[in-house]
Batch of 2 targets.
Target 1
Amino acid sequence: MSKAHKLFAVPVFVLILSLFLAVATASATDYTSPSFMVKDPVLFPAAYSTSTGYILISTMAQISIGTSTATTGSVRELRSGFEYFPFVTRPVLSAVPGSASVSLSWSASVGILGWTVSGYSVGQSLTSGGPYTFTGVGLVTVSTAVGLVNGTTYYFVVAAQDAFGNFIATSTEVSATPVAGVTPPTPGGGGGGGGYVPPPVIPPIATTTPPVIIPPLPPVVVIPPITVPPSGICHTIADLNCDGYVDIIDFSIMYYWFERTNIPTRVDLRQDGRVDLADFSVMAAYWYERPRY
Amino acid sequence: MKHFTVHITKDNPLLWGQGNTRSDLGDTDLRSDLVFPVRLLQSVLLGLLLFFPLNLFAAEVSFIATPPVAAVGQEVGVDIVLDTEGRTATALSGEITITGTDGKPVTVVRIQDGGSVIGAWLKEATTNTPGKVGFSGIIPGGRRVSNEHVLTLYFVPEKTGTLTFVFSGEVFFTTAPGEPVSLPRVSFALLVNETPQEDTPPLPQDETPPSDIRAIIAQNEAMFDGRPFIIVHAKDAESGILMYELLEIGEYRPLAGLENDTLLPWRRIENPEALLYPVNTRYIYVRVTDREGNSAVAFVGAPELSPEKTAIWFNKWLILAILIGVAGLLSLWLWVRRGS
């Protein structure tokens, strides 16, 4: 390659790379008017909410609106920053007290420009402003806090979460005081009597289709070779996959060889050359299921 | 319920074994040289009488009909109930034959085995063979079973007379793992009248789909030629699970409506069942249907490179591409500098 070619190739490569980088950072836009120009607007972190116990910093702040205000005449309104950025509407939370419980409902948060709401967490505190103890409730817009003490005021917030569990929008705080003898509203319920008539809960009007959450395929459970002696640490002779439990997996493994020929010696628990109900009865005697979570 | 009881009284010399009463050997007093063989015989007989009931009737199956008297054209349910008499059972197998007054086999119209003491079935009861229902399964962990439901058979008698049920089967106990113990053969007769009794309560109908569907994808070199396979487990408290179906497709489908879908390539599977496609190349769904047609669908997982995941990884790939580009640029610059 000649020197002239080399000198030509470098700028071309830089130009291509610049275009590539420009696409990746195309969000930054200069703002102009006949009187002024705002160059290279940036986003900056902003204090979202504080208390004596914690500070919550949002990842970006909306600085394009309200940075300064304009009246009339020669005073210009300055609107700096990004006009378009990922945004999630804040859920509007309401709470209805019950007996030792509080029914919570909120409007669905709507994410735009790339942010998707994948679930909600309900924060609960005995102190206004927090700190809150958050509990994930999934992609729902109602929840009930139970096990509360009647007569005690509780403070709640609800936070929308993205697919990674990050809090991307948090409601304003609401409070409720559970009272003995009060029946909180139940979705779809009817009838019954009582002195307390809860206010009607108007469901949010859905303007967008709720996001679809598609869980990934769980990892494949690799069953170690069924050998004699077994590989791994087996709970009992019936723990065929040596995972410490005798459960439906072991049952399925044995069922694979049910009434078959050429069965592995270790699957044949009675060592009589076949897998039948007698072998399964031995497995049942050793049954030891893993605790549910 | 049947019980065998041995009555031991002083009036029964055979059982009590006292020589000072009138003997079956004669009116004379027992001579001393005869006392030992007679007592030995008495002891052996006593032992046999006590031994056999303990082993033969350590568990039994009984029938409970609802309504107790059937009527022509009216569905009747016959519940098969197990009692292990305090012993811990781990497995049960059985066969029930049902014949009418004319001796012909009677067809079972439906079966419910939800909520059974059998926790996992090896051979599920079916209505395929007229007049005969066979089953086997295990009681996970082993349990003392006290008059608990095994399964319920439903019939619609076509003529008056008697339906006769005969049960035979085996049970396994923890005291002798893997050794079957024969259950006593039990017969049960159900009277069929012309007209139904008044105030007959309706029989239970299952309208609740299966729940708690769990699926595991596993792999073992000795099973299915090393291909990944799926294990599905679900619960149905009423009629019981009828079948599992598997769907492996290339695009995501929302769960709503899949319960009754007939267009997608669902395939009925055994448990376990090998996957048709390599792992992480298809969206996998499982449909579980109970014996009365209620279905529930569970989504097992998305492929590794689904559009959703691709979107998540997009930014990471972009950053990687930029870094590679910068590295390439630097390398080029150094190469050009060295060359010049």
Target 2
Amino acid sequence: MSGIVVSERGPSVGGRAVRQASEWLPALVVFVLVVGAWEGLIRAFHVQQFLLPTPSAIVRTLWTDRHQLWPAGWYTFKEALGGFVIGSALGVAAATFVGRFKAAGNALMPIFIAANAVPIIAFAPIFNAWFNPISPNSKIAVAAVLCFLPVMVNTLRGFQSASPRQIELMRSYAASELEIWRRVRIPTALPFLFTALKVASVLSMIGAIVGEYFGGALNALGVLINSEASVFHFVTAWAGILVASVLGIALYAAVVLAERLVVRWSPQTRGS
Amino acid sequence: MSDAAPPVVRIDGVTKTFPQGNVTALQEIDLALAPGEFVSLIGPSGCGKSTLLRVIGDLIEPTAGTVTVNGKPARQARSDGDYGIVFQDAVLFDWRTVAKNIGLPLEMLGWDRAKRRARVEEMLELVELGGFADHHPWQLSGGMQQRVSIARALAFEPALLLMDEPFGALDEMTRERLNLELLSIWQQLGSTVVFVTHSISEAVFLSSRVVVMSPRPGRIAGTVPIDLPYPRAVETREAPRFFELVTEVRELLRTRGEHLLPEEEAAL
């Protein structure tokens, strides 16, 4: 879609399905080839299970240990989700505050930028000490802290990207500051916010799992991966990683879906 | 102004200095616009013509002097929605459809939905974008976007239309076509227009009066009344009188623009 587009509607539904399938096909082929090569090479060279299990063994474990793996994954997912929601909400709130009050921005932004360079994950053991290490709260905290900064920085940039001309136009209508926020700054910031939320969705899962590596409830995925790996049950650890990946991708996909619903007007999200 | 009708815009001794760099953008500007006038402000860059437009619209506060719009202080006129404004780029909101962009000032004025829809429909017809109500701005060409912007500025029938180089970013052919459209809209609605431009021929073609400004500090160098009859058409640009007036404006720009930079001089 470029230039003057006369029709709003794209190709027919059937046409779109075919086109989307053809877009996905190369990636699917590569995926199948890689997994196939992985399986084939390990069988051909008799690589030992604990070094690298075959994909088929991992999938088999995913099924046989399903009553252990998926509840653990769900437990960790809920921690990640909690951190994602709390961290993102605080990020948006801080961006709004800093965007609204310039003095606050001048005071806080250097600190936020410096904090952004800190490897937050290093704090995981300390969060475990602050909260009860068995409780999910310490993991939620790690995930939330990880999500906060990218959301805050991106959303603020979004608020500040509002076109000065659009603001001038609103002022010509005698619009209040609140109306300028509602009708110009917030819509401008939405694509920035969703870009940040996509990053945060990935970070939240990392935060929760790494947090659990330093101790957590026995039915948590990070704890499970860690303990299975330490007793050389690498197949189970791999299956756990697969569960974590599936859930992480699901959260990411949910954000993408929300973006498509909310930022429907944007040429980018329309997939031009 | 010896006319009986009170002026739509009255500018008295307006001076504007910007503290950054100690620039005097406008010095002692006096100007009055009668109802229904089409006045162009022309001058080289830095002559303060856009600043003057913004002072009229109360988007910039003058350092000294007063601006009266419709007999009220400019601030009051702004909060009463007495003028519509069009910028060089269309300044449309990507997240709004064409119809909702045009309806934005009506929303701000608190019009109800049905009334808004009816007016937006009328405006779309006026700028000949009937079939594009539900399109988004990025689906339109530059010329179409600028027509949406004009429709938006006129939607609430302001007595005054402020235009800041509205066709400056468009190609010559689109520009000349929109010049004609603007004149026909102006004659239908009878509003007063302040039109900032770089183009001498555009200023002469559109205006009933051309105000020539000189830079550093921004002052009014002179005024050229344009006595070409309305309605004007493509042929107007080929009339001998048109060329005489273009020359008159150009001479005024040259003789009074002694502070011009060489490249600005060359551009004239």
